[in-house]
């Protein structure tokens, strides 16, 4: 046999071996753990077709079984962290969820995590995890606007798409994500904007982080604010979080909300202000007085988008207050809770808001 023929046969053998190996590689599935907390996605109606429903009625095993083809996307397992409506989400569940997420993500046997969650406070939980998760592996929150027993329930498809994103290596390093209605949102941006619509989640300031079509994600720009492995809070989940309350500005509001927050022992106060984080003179004076007593006060806006920056309509330097930048009041509260575990210095807290 000539040398040429020997090399030809050798090359053909290598090629056939590569082809034979290819299916085994493509069939390797990512390992995704679903951490369930309840919500509408696990909700049940008393009778078919009724508007009312009970959130958190189904277990995670039931949710997994209700999604055809889920096992083709990933090797999926589930754990029930809580089973509540997200209006009842609390610090204790956040801490439990974050610690379990960090434990799982540290394992080489886990490629990504999905958290099923009610939509009412999903943006707050997502942002909390965005600050305390210490991993570049994907963490994806999803839920639904219709209960599991509804006609054309949106939960199964949302869970299907979320698992696809959580198992995708290209989702690594993008921070915590929110996936609903075929859209991918960064936790820093995502917010619920409609009480009933399936496309309630929007990212009004910087736009969506991508979309996912039948388990095929497409990503846009990576988030700029610090998150996960770049966060000063990553991996250090506290045993408890300081009390931070939100006060709401409106026409003719007085000092009552601020006085009540201080009397209740709040370590921090977030203003859901009108316009550019503003309020009546009476309320602003009360907030400044609280700041001078050591309560850290952050000015945010109730309008839903835009940024509250320092020293525009109000002089934060004189008032002793912090500007929330792009964070809405609910997310500003989350960051302030974590910031207060490290400092009560308003200047340092402002730095956190500038970077996160």
What does this structure look like?
The protein has 356 residues and is an alpha/beta fold. The protein has helices spanning 3-27, 60-65, 70-73, 91-105, 122-132, 155-166, 256-263, 281-292, 316-319, 329-339, 346-355, and strands spanning 31-38, 75-84, 112-116, 139-142, 177-180, 183-186, 191-192, 201-202, 210-213, 216-219, 244-248, 268-273, 296-301, 322-323. It folds into two domains: 28-230, L-asparaginase, N-terminal domain (Rossmann fold, 3-Layer(aba) Sandwich), CATH 3.40.50.1170; 244-355, Rossmann fold (3-Layer(aba) Sandwich), CATH 3.40.50.40. The chain has eleven helices and 14 strands. The strands form three sheets. An eight-stranded mixed sheet has the order 2-1-3-4-5-6-9-10, with helices on both faces. Strand 7 (191-192) and strand 8 (201-202) form a beta hairpin. The longest helix is centred in the first third of the chain and has 25 residues, at 3-27. The termini are far apart.
